[in-house]
Sequence to fold (239 residues):
Amino acid sequence: MKKLVIAAFALTAAASVFAQGTVQFANRIGGGAGVGISLHVYAPSSTAPALSLIGLGSADNPSGTTAFTQSGMDYIGRTGSAGKYGYSTTFAQLIGANGTSGVLESSLVPLGQTSTFKSGAALGGINLINDTLSGTPAIPKDSAGATFEIVAWDNSSLLYPTWTEAYNAWTKGTIAAGKSAMFITTAIGGDTTPIPNMNNDKGNPGGMTSFNLYFIPEPSTFALAGLGAAAMLIFRRRK
Fold:
């Protein structure tokens, strides 16, 4: 009986794995009009480490006007392979949820595997992986579509191998992290559907974007800022 239970559990686990959809996870994708893109992930601003920018910059394809470089930001990997914001020590992962309409950001969960970043002329680009969208819940095979964000974080300490650990550290102000805008990918890979690139649907809420890592200030910082503002208001009234 015990062997039967173990066998049944193994089959259930295997079925769960095989039921998960797949996508090509990267932020640089070749292809024709509406598909080919070249986006970037940036390290924190050298002058404003709490600044968050999401959009298309002048170095992107398609290009935009988001002021990444003008705000003191440089590509992930510019400092080399190791250390903070190195191309091997900065991690990226997908968060997402099944469905393409009415999906709330609060419903997105960590999915699949992590990747690192490119070196050389492709700094700021995520190394492409065929990503199996495991998670709780997973994205099923041959799904009509899912809603995603790309998240990235500093893992130079080796303490944050997945977004679950990294998110907690980020919200406490321990590490820098960031996320893209929400975007849709249709026709998730499976038994009958080929593995899609992630930028195959630029409809609502939009295509993929560049973004930067940044620090969330500690609550004490907000408190001090509030006290400073209150003191300035009192001083002005007295004058």
About this structure: The first strand starts at residue 22 and ends at 25.
